[in-house]
């Protein structure tokens, strides 16, 4: 990990309600560097998906700024790719053409036909679907459809991947396979990724850092760095203490605590795994 790729500063998101402006998310900051996976956890309604749209340039924040390599992001950027829980494949296009369709997105630089073909073929190979290039979405399983959605992102050669619960609708085995595929893609391309998820275990298995949003309006109430090497699936015991601490903080973040009877801790001690798991809560 080296230079800063994506940076968000003091992001505030909300809406105009009956009683004036209502903030949903306030004062959010994040930085992404190459090869890093950052997960954002939080209860429903704290603005996680709105935050992702802001980072992608699909939504303008009420205040704050987003920059990619020091340049402001105010609209969709060709070097930022987004994947949602719904693969959103076009049913009238086969697999190969659905992957290629990502190269036709607005503001995506035009590429020569031979480069376009090479990008699409490479992206399909990376997700292991060379055998199904002529298949249509109706012929694909849920896992295959998500692989196509990931390949569509990869064909654009992004520097940042923004992922909004992309594996939430998959069965456990397929989900685990997709998680490992995502990690391998990030490692190969040194891409930065921000993952929106409700799943603490998914965040623990995939992330270098975890941010937890909570309260109303939402803000970052906890941040943890995980230094355990990948793969982590067989190191559950080492992640157990951190999982409990995140769950406790998540439960508190789901409601407004009484500052007298239930103050949030200044820090979380993770003595079970010294030197490996680091945390900070606000």
From TrEMBL:
Gene3D superfamilies the UniProt entry points to: P-loop containing nucleotide triphosphate hydrolases
Top-level taxonomy: Bacteria, Pseudomonadati, Pseudomonadota, Gammaproteobacteria, Pseudomonadales
Boundaries of every ABC transporter domain copy: 6-240
Matches recorded under Pfam families: ABC_tran
SUPFAM superfamilies: P-loop containing nucleoside triphosphate hydrolases
Species assigned in the record: Pseudomonas weihenstephanensis
Molecular function terms from GO: ATP binding
Alphabetical UniProt keywords: ATP-binding, Nucleotide-binding, Translocase, Transport
Cleaved signal peptide residues: none
Entries under InterPro entries matching the protein: AAA+_ATPase, ABC_transporter-like_ATP-bd, ABC_transporter-like_CS, ABC_transporter_ATP-bind, P-loop_NTPase
Protein name in UniProt: ABC transporter ATP-binding protein
Family named by the database record: Belongs to the ABC transporter superfamily.
């Amino acid at each position: 990990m080296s230079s800063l790729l994506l940076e968000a500063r003091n992001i505030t998101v909300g809406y105009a309600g009956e009683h004036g402006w209502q903030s949903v998310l306030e004062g959010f900051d994040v930085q992404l560097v190459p090869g890093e996976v950052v997960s954002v956890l939080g209860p429903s309604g704290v603005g996680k998906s709105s935050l992702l749209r802001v980072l992608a340039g699909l939504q303008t924040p009420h205040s704050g700024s987003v920059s990619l390599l020091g340049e402001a992001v105010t609209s969709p950027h060709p070097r930022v790719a987004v994947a949602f829980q719904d693969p959103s494949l076009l049913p009238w296009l086969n697999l190969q053409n659905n992957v290629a369709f990502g190269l036709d997105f607005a503001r995506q630089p035009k590429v020569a036909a031979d480069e376009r073909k090479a990008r699409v073929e490479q992206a399909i190979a990376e997700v292991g679907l060379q055998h199904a290039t002529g298949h249509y979405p109706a012929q694909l399983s849920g896992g295959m459809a998500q692989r196509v959605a990931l390949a569509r992102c990869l064909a654009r050669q992004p520097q940042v991947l923004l992922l909004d619960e992309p594996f939430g609708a998959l069965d456990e085995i397929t989900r685990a396979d997709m998680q490992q595929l995502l990690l391998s893609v990030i490692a190969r391309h040194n891409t930065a990724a921000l993952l929106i998820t409700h799943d603490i275990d998914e965040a623990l298995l995939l992330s270098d850092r975890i941010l937890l949003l909570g309260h109303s309006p939402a803000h970052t109430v906890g941040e943890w760095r995980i230094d355990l090497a990948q793969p982590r699936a067989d190191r559950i015991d080492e992640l157990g203490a951190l999982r409990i601490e995140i769950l406790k903080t998540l439960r508190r973040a789901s409601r407004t605590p009484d500052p007298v009877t239930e103050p949030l801790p200044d820090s979380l001690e993770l003595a079970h795994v010294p030197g490996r798991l680091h945390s900070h809560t606000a």
